[in-house]
Design a protein that fits this description.
This protein is mostly helical. It has five helices and four strands.
Length: about 150
C-alpha cells in the first residue's frame, strides 16, 4: 500500500492515489465514513506502535503521542521512582478528533535507537515498521474479504 517508516520515524504514504482508492472502496462497502476509516487506521498504527515499544520503566511507551492536523511534540515527565510500569495515560480513539492528517510522535532522544533494535527488552526493534506492515496487511486482507 506504500506506507514507509523513514529515518525520522515519520510515516509517509507514498502511493496516495492507491491509498485513497482503497479507503474509499472500504468506506463504500462498509458504510463507514472515510474520515472514520482514516481515524481508525491511524489509531490502529498508534496502538500497535505503543504495544510494540519495549518497556523498562514505561517512559518510551508513555511518550508516544497521536494528534490531529499538527504534531504533538511534547515529552511527558519521567516516571517517578518505583512508579508502576505503563503508568502513563493513553488517549482513546474517541478522544481523537477527526482530521485529514494524523501525527504519531515520540520525542525521546533514544526512540530511534529503540526502533533500530537497541533494547534489552526487545532485540528486534522496528516497532514502527512492524506495525505499519501489520496494519497494512490487515487492511488489505479486509479489503479482499469485502470483495468476495
Amino acid at each position: 500500500m506504500g506506507v514507509t517508516a523513514e529515518k525520522t520515524i515519520m510515516l509517509k504514504i507514498t502511493n496516495t492515489k492507491e491509498f485513497k482508492k482503497a479507503i474509499k472502496r472500504f468506506s463504500k462497502k462498509t458504510d463507514i465514513a472515510v474520515d472514520i476509516v482514516i481515524k481508525r487506521l491511524a489509531f490502529e498504527v498508534f496502538a500497535g506502535v505503543v504495544e510494540k515499544t519495549p518497556v523498562d520503566v514505561g517512559y518510551a511507551r508513555g511518550a508516544w503521542n497521536i494528534s490531529a492536523n499538527k504534531p504533538d511534540l511534547s515529552i511527558p515527565d519521567p516516571p517517578e521512582k518505583n512508579a508502576a510500569k505503563d503508568s502513563y495515560p493513553m488517549p482513546t480513539i474517541d478522544s481523537l478528533p477527526s482530521a485529514t492528517r494524523y501525527y504519531i510522535t515520540n520525542n525521546l532522544p533514544y526512540i530511534q535507537a529503540l526502533e533500530a533494535g537497541h533494547s534489552k527488552q526487545m532485540d528486534k526493534g522496528h516497532m514502527v515498521s512492524r506495525t505499519i506492515n501489520d496494519v497494512t496487511a490487515n487492511f488489505e486482507r479486509l479489503l479482499k474479504d469485502l470483495d468476495k
